[in-house]
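[Q] Does anyone have a clean structure-token version of this?
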Amino acid sequence: MSRAHDEKPNPRPPAAPAPGGAGVQGVSKRFGAVQALAGVTLDFPAGRITALMGENGAGKSTLLKILAGDHQPTEGSVVVDGRPVQLASPTDARRTGIRIIPQEPEIIPHVSVAENVYAGSLPRAAGRRLDRAELRRRITADLKRLGFDKVLDPDLLGSQLTPAQRQLVEIMRALTGEAKVIAFDEPTSSLSEHEVDALFALIRRLREDGVAVVYVSHRMQEIFQLADRIAVLRDGALAGVQDAATTSEGELVRLMVGRDLSAMLSRPHVATDRLVLDVRGLTTDDVRDIDLQIHAGEVVGLAGLIGAGRSELALALAGDLPVRAGTVTLDGGRLPSGNPGAVIRAGLGLAPEERKAQALFLHRSIRDNTSTVVLERLRRFRFVRRSAERELAQEYADRLQVRTPSIEQEVRKLSGGNQQKVVLARWLARKPKVLILDEPTRGIDVGAKAEIYRIIADLAAEGVAILVISSELPEVLGLADRILVMQNGRITGELDRADATEEAVLNLAMADDIAPATPGAAA
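[A] Here you go.
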């Protein structure tokens, strides 16, 4: 579906919430001079799944906090079953039948899963002792009813739970008692495929039972798989409500950011003839006979299916995996194998796929994360000049538009898009000649994607040679000057920008005549 989009949010007044379910009527919320929500009227009908979308800062979290009773609106009201209600606290919201499942679960570490689920309503025996037999009966029945009995052990302590299990405990806790409205805030961010299937089955059962479901996510595939209708917030206002069966991803992107995704990807061709990265016959345990050249200002895309060897190639180039044969030359100088420090000093940076596990110090500040690869430049007599470090971190936080109250904010408290910007800020501070970006927009909203694309275009314009690895074919096709395709650890073909199509890339990615790379084979 495609139509012209009015740049002004709320092009027409939405209807008031209908009886059944819940909603908000004319809700605005200000925090000092900041207008977080502006006159939002939106219903969440009983027996329907309403997806709530919008880029970071659009107002989604504020709206959920108002429904949860954590914030009170500056203007307007929350409506449940067609009547305005006053939610002065989370207790009021729960008593009214509203449940909000947060993105970051709150788990009691020293008690069991069963006790975490029923915290505040534990069964008691004579003498007010915990009735463990009744607790066991209740948790066993609820685990089976919700489809979590195969993935959650009721006897595990909160401190022993994986992130996915913590999320499931929070969901179970929300489903105790009678719920009229349940909101899920990015619930699949830490779940496996099997756990996601169980969650989706549960959400569909809730819909069949007449519960109003609110589903907050930036993942388009999930939205179209689950939702009946999709509401989009932009800059604190309601940009529109779409029927999930008739709208398109492009329409949702336009509602969220006010322009097409193709416009975000467009950039001028600025590549020069100066060869910066020259890879010849590179062979590791995972990839074989890799030839790859990138020029100054050129963006080269690396495509392929999962398991093709793309990330392994990136790690080998960065010095994190040993090279068995072949050479890697950067600006005329040969890079050593298995020496990440030397590779960084030579001018190559890698923003890896798993930014939380491989790139970020989550409990350290933006300042610490930005300066970690340039500390030698900031030292004087073996001591880091803190004022220079703060100035550098602030410079790149401003340049990349990291949304944070302070550069002293812990990185774990940032959104995915802002975390990715911190990773990029680190390498921009290092001023690399070559930058490898492995899945640079995975797990971030469409607005943050637009900003990452802008950063890539700016770096190319400055003469940085860029290798972009992405599983999103439209992203690779839109960003790259040339596209290399991998399968089974080898490059199966190269496509110029003018000749590249999704079909051509997939044909090379799925070629059936390419044998797997043999570990330890000579180039």
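[Q] Thanks! Anything notable?
[A] The first strand starts at residue 22 and ends at 31.
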